[in-house]
Amino acid sequence: MRESLNLALTLTAIALVASLGLAAAYTATYQIKEQYDLEEREAARREVLPGAEDAVFEEVPTDSLVSGKSFVYYAARAGAGSQDVLGYTFTAYGKGYSSTIVTMVGVDTEFAVTGIRIISQQETPGLGTKIQEILSKNTLWQVLSGNAAEEIGARPWFQAQFDGRGEDRLRVVKAKTDDGVMAITGATISSEAVAGSVRRGIAMLRSIVGPGSGPAADTTAVAGEGTP
Fold it and tell me: Does residue 107 belong to any structural domain of this protein?
């Protein structure tokens, strides 16, 4: 009887220690991931808004929902205390074929896209994942011979199409045209998820900060590199 009790107590102690260890490991890794995500979004904001590398970003929560998510945008100002707005950024969410595609979007004060960067997606490999595909100018022979040129700064061709477009020119089309965003072959749903989410975000931003709209409340200043 005593041996059975000792065995039960030992197993309970082992299980408790293991549980505490797993909980501690989860907490530590979760905090690391959260910090990484925050830093990635900060970097993405500065990337999609050229010229705002040294800007101060002001977070502006709103009561509005876009695609079922609370709409929050950031106003990029020339410096602390400055009233000069360089542009805006926001995060767009679009329902793709097999995942929710999360996109950081930058727009200028006229609401034209200055850049986008897809920061999360789990689309079909070889199809929907091409929304992040970078087309190389190197030939196969250059790669095999070790003479491939570095392509630092190259951007995914699909995302580069958004540059300079207003919401009226963000419709997905199946042939290259100045009036729309060309869909990825075999991945129209993924293409529309990105374009549609960007379009809806711009429309919401325009309704909030556009002509005739008052300033949004609850503005929180965000300054410095690595701060969301």
Answer: yes
